[in-house]
Amino acid sequence: MPGEPSARPPAGRTGLLGLGSNVGDRRAHLQAAVDALPRAGARVLASSCTYDTDPVGEIVDQPTFLNACVRVRTELQPLELLDAVKRLERELGRERGGVRHGPRAIDIDILLLGELQLSHERMTLPHEQLLTRRFVLIPALELDLELRAPDGERLADALAALAFDEGVRWAGPPLALQGGPAAAGARA
Fold it and tell me: pLDDT tens digits, residue range 107-159?
């Protein structure tokens, strides 16, 4: 019926978050993040499969990561969402003051938030490493093969341009969504 709340398009923006863990029960840490994101103001719409990935960046001598991407819907502004996911990381066992890029129970990165572009001292949108990390691009493209950065660059083209020196291996099915089965590739 016209005018009913369910007839209106959902408010907010669709975004893409990257999840990672390399200590303890890695899948349980990722699942706990998916389960808690609605409390933090981000409704999870879809999850990619999980991928076992080699550490990259400043510290490569550490356990492999389990990574996934989730599509979310949020009414939060970028810095509000950043504060919410950082609080959530602490609640889920990420220790404050740890070594940057070191081992961690949970890492939640805001990769995209609609078509927003932001350059702030606390965050950059799209995420500054979105187009350079296979462990982000592979699960992101699983959710939407036509995904583009706000400047129009296709994520698939960015992935095709990367060298194969970063190990990314399928590790398991999508994470479970609240209220139903995991929905890799589901459109919202």
Answer: 999 999 999 999 999 999 999 999 999 999 999 999 999 999 999 999 999 99
pTM for the model stands at 0.88
Average predicted confidence (pLDDT) for the chain: 89
Question: In the CATH scheme, what is the code of domain 5-171?
Answer: 3.30.70.560
**Residue numbers annotated as active site:** 94, 104, 107, 109
Partners of residue 169 on adjacent β-strands: 52
For the chain, which residues make up each domain, given as ranges?
5-171
CB 133 within 8 A of CB 163: no
